[in-house]
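Feature request disguised as a bug report, sorry. It would help if multi-protein outputs had a clear separator. Right now it looks like this:
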Amino acid sequence: MEFYGIKFQTMNAFTRLCCLLLLCGSMGFKTSIMQTKHAVYVDQFFVPAPAIDSFMERMLYNRKLLRTMPGLLHQEAYARKDEQGNLYVLTTASWESDAALQHARVTVQNAYKEEGFDLAAMLARQHIKLERSVYQPLED
């Protein structure tokens, strides 16, 4: 099978689907899979009790920095303490697109570089655990 000069018999099914979606997009056809969807950046932290004050200071700095970036739709933070006084924090930042999220990542990394801040070193030094994920909204 050939479609716009592409021979599909030499491609697997996934590659054929990707090519068709790209071709349809370039021809002006829209499908729900091709729509740019907002991205939700989720950080989950475990913060030992002795590190809470410095962690909270840094988190507030980061949240202020994010508010200045184009494409930020919404951000939230949630926290709870366990019986030992350790802190569990969940933060979310919703971005209008993956491109806006990537731009924010680069901007934050550059800001860290300029001020000489090393996130990995801070987390290790204070025994803070971080799990980071990016989520996409589900279709109804």
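(second protein starts here, but nothing in the output says so)
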Amino acid sequence: MRFPSLALLASCLLAGEAHARFVIYADEWHPTRPTNAADRTGIDHVVLAFAMANNTAAFQPKVPISTIRSEFPDAKVMIAIGGWGDTVGFSEATKTDAGIAKFASDVQTMLTNTGADGIDIDWEYPGGNGADYKQVPNSAKVHEIKGFPKLLGAVRTAIGKDKLLSIAVPGKKGDMIAFTAETAPDIWAAVDYINIMSYDLMNRRDTKTAHHTSVVGATTALENYLDIGAPVDKINLGFAFYAKYFTTAGDCSASPLGCSIVAAEDPITGKDTLTSGAWTYEPAHMVPVDTSQLKPSYDGTCGPEKMTKCTTGCCSQYGNCGTTKEHCSGACQHAFGTGCVDADVAGSWQIAMANSVTDEAQGGQYFYDKQNGLFWTWDTTALITRKFQQIVRSYGIGGVMAWSLGEDSFDWSHIHQIANELGSSGYGTKQPHGKQSYAVVLNDGSEEPTEPTLTDPTSTDPTSTDTTEDDGYYWVDMPENTDTWSEPTEGDDYWYKWE
């Protein structure tokens, strides 16, 4: 079964339809925000991260919501609750109905106090597999599975229909513990948006190199939710504004993908072994260091922001001088100190950017740096376009989301690319997954094809029914339109028939 025309056909047929959402998280660890209005174009939801799940009512964002509104006057401003590692508040709340009611009340209090337009529940993850999975096994979190939709329902009741409620959901199927055929209907009913984290698809719990984000990986993540009934118009496909790197166990030159890595977390404690990490698109990470311009550090800080170097010891990835393992490994900044014992991550990234490879089959960017023993994986602006063509437009989802605003602050190029795609013709949001089908034929205009004889589809799965394999017609999911054959004009690239 072939579907080569799906994305382009969608852009041809759906031009001028509804505007798609652009949701972006703004986190406190990467606080840079665009000062030029052009760098904010298209963003219509800003999600401030994070309020703690066990102290929600008292939360006040570090940047006042009024400031964010002045910078993004056309955007809804929301507050994210939770984030990686913050699961205790959610888990405790879902043990009892009273706990759920208090959590919902606290959320309402926070919205009243802050004036935010809504909240995002970023529970990673209900049912288990979170940061504490070695300390608190999944067997101790079974109550969270049924508690999760109850919590969302209670929050919706507390905040009312005028406030927005979204959820950040895992991209890996193994982490979708609480997203089942039984719980899904209540989850979808409670929320306005479903933000799929279709990145970090390779993480430190994996043992072999793979794309942390790719067209194929994002498509699979999306379809996992469509399979359990997630409404397409509520879905936002996730984009990551960072690369990831992993230390390989040996020479991966022959096969960079599927190659063994050094254990990236402690098998007993789950603690980060500092052999992998994320590398954001911030100026400090993107610009090569001119070591001739460095000055000695006299305050214990170091790095590209101040262009200072430790007089003794290592410069940690967080810009502090010292001699501990945390200072001298885990993206230790080689150019800004002495004694680093790990690979030169910053130098390796420069090599990776200059020599990267596009995996055309999977739709991911990668590079293996033999010198430093690092495997890199990330998205390019070209792959953002491909994701729009093959996923966002083709499936007609409601929009996109990105983590995070400040992480693209080198040149805001990923934000620009997303905005350009959202502003281009051909985006539609009205296509229900697996409801209707139509047939497509590729044609260069040089000849008039014969109208095909079509059989009725026997399944909502578009791959299960087809006309003859070599006739150029393919079944794909699309909305109902008309039962008449559209007469093309000479030069049309696509002729189609609705069924």
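Even a blank line would do. Unrelated, but nice: Confidence is low (pLDDT under 50) at residues 1-17, 428-499.
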